[in-house]
Amino acid sequence: MGDDSAERTGYRRSAGSPRGEARRRELLARVTDDLAVNGLVDFSLRRAARAAGTTHKVLLYHFAGAEDLLAQAVFALRERRIGNALAAMAGGAQQRTLAGRVRVAWQTLRDEEAGLRRVLDQAVGLTMYDPERYADLGRGSTRQYLNLLVSFCPEPWPEPRKREVAELVLATLRGFVVHRLTSDDPGGADAGFAALERALEREEAAGD
Predict the structure, then answer these.
(1) Torsion, CA 56, CA 61, CA 64, CA 69, rounded to 10
(2) What is the number of structural domains in the chain?
(3) Burial code of 179-202, b = ≥16 C-beta within 10 A, e = fewer?
(4) Domain encompassing residue 88
(5) Cβ pair 63, 21 in contact under 8 A
(6) What is the pTM of this model?
(7) With bands split at pLDDT 50, 70 and 90, how would you rate the model's confidence at 208?
(8) pLDDT tens for residues 53-72?
(9) CATH number for position 197
(10) One GO MF term, please (predicted)?
């Protein structure tokens, strides 16, 4: 990312009025759509302003700076990914089990649009490249996905057990994503997922 200096110029930011909030959401949606198409490389306030059809000073009225805008746009893209997964599993009988829900989530992740996948992979890469500066991108990702995966677990399970299983699933799926990007065996991640699915079926069959 570039062009961070404008963050320190002290522009007054939106106070959150209904009109200001509507404008902020409009600008954020335009920037989010630009990220989905063009990725995070060379992201800056000026690039975001061009995409939003405004100036970087206007963006600084509504957002705390380039990193705040980036974090909110990436959050919105993750919500898009989560929404796609929930839509895919709506109404299906097989999605009544933990393993079935995770299967649909994996299939949605595996088959999602290339732009969405690329920019969210880049966000993870930023967190790994500069964890001090971009730690919130990674932590935000974990919070969003864990909330979803906890909701997949059987309702009677105690919360610590839901959390443990959700952590396992999240870490494993992240590993599969990296494997698909770096392996010359395109079926390897799917074979690994089949093993995860069997483990989840056994976990659920074990009951409380």
Answers:
(1) -50
(2) 1
(3) ebeeeeeeeebeeebeebbeebee
(4) 5-205
(5) no
(6) 0.81
(7) low
(8) 999 999 999 999 998 999 99
(9) 1.10.357.10
(10) DNA binding
